[in-house]
Amino acid sequence: MSHDCDVLIVGAGIGGLAAALALQRAGCKVRVFEQSPELGEVGAGLSVSPNGALGLQALGVIDAFRAKAYAPEYQCVRHFATGRILAHVPRGDRLTKEYGDRYYVIHRADLHAVLAGAVRANDATAIVTDHRASDLVQDDSRVSVRFENGNTAEGKLLIAADGVRSRMRNVLFGAEEVRFTGYVAWRGLVPIERVPGDALDPPSQVWIGPGHMINRYPVAGGKLLNFVAFAERSGWEEEGWNIPAKVSELNAEFAGWHPHVTTIVENVPEDKLFKWALCARSALMRWVKGRAALLGDAAHPLLPYLGQGAVMAIEDAVLLGRAVAAAEDMSRALARYEAARVGRARLVVEQSTLMVARFHSSDPDSFRHDVPVDESLGLFAYDPGTVPV
Predict the structure, then answer these.
(1) 255-267 average pLDDT score
(2) For strand 29-33 and strand 6-10, is the pairing parallel, antiparallel, or unpaired?
(3) Full-prediction pTM beyond 0.90?
(4) Active site residues
(5) Residues 1-25, buried b or exposed e (16+ Cβ, 10 A)?
(6) How far apart are CA 83 and CA 202, in angstroms?
(7) CA-CA distance, 99 to 380, in Å (whole number)?
């Protein structure tokens, strides 16, 4: 496409920033609008599997990412009470040979900073904070976004990357209630010196038990142990995903679990412990309307049980950038993007939901993981930089 191509992106999370970088690389002028007063990312650590790492390669930020990430040689799944290893999950260089890159874990804020830095290196004014989008209008040639502060912005294309509670999705495709899935999560950061040495063998572990699960691994150059703990709940009324939590509450939730779990929970500083509800909307089969398209959780929110949430947004971004670079006009670019991504995203949403029963099993001893599920599903064998678009 020959570009005088100006693009508006709503949302400066990982998906929005990855999309901005991909579109900049395709030759577009990009403006990213973030509702928060300051750019930043809160949250837990996250996984970046080989397919996501290949996406970061395509975006040109893999070296900066690797400098912040931890690449485990293997992970294990353990029984909640006995600590018995139920499954070894090999990672390491084998994945590079089979898929082209490794499996990584990283703090969300570190990945966010890598992407934001790359976007701003291309254009120091690309990211605009304190702009919460409220509405949009479009015609055959332009799309305009209105913000709650009274400002407006206009471009040839709009990408809505504003998360599971996406307001732009409501405007484009109609309001749909965000549903509580029945699962609550806590995230915490524990100084590594507070963690017993034998609890770090291996550093990356998942513990499973009836109605509960905890995933934990080092971040911040090995200085902190990040954990995300999940539990089932019949109801939830608090909104937000940065709600301060009490150590006593989490202790009670995981009472009776192995000391390697309870010691970590007991040692999290309370100002580093937060909780949120896992919420969902349906995964749409249409992501494009006119000159506007959805990306990431706005299009396909998924439960975190395959560790693919950030990775799916990165994949979306790379395919979007490639579609814009290759197509003759914007409408064809968006059509190619949607066609390339909808089926893939739907598969991952469905499989992530199915994984709940495995990781919250009332009979953890029945857990089988001879071939890692993410590999058996073919998730890693997807290179967003080369798949057809």
Answers:
(1) 97
(2) parallel
(3) yes
(4) 217
(5) beeebbbbbbbbbbbbbbbbbbbbb
(6) 12
(7) 6
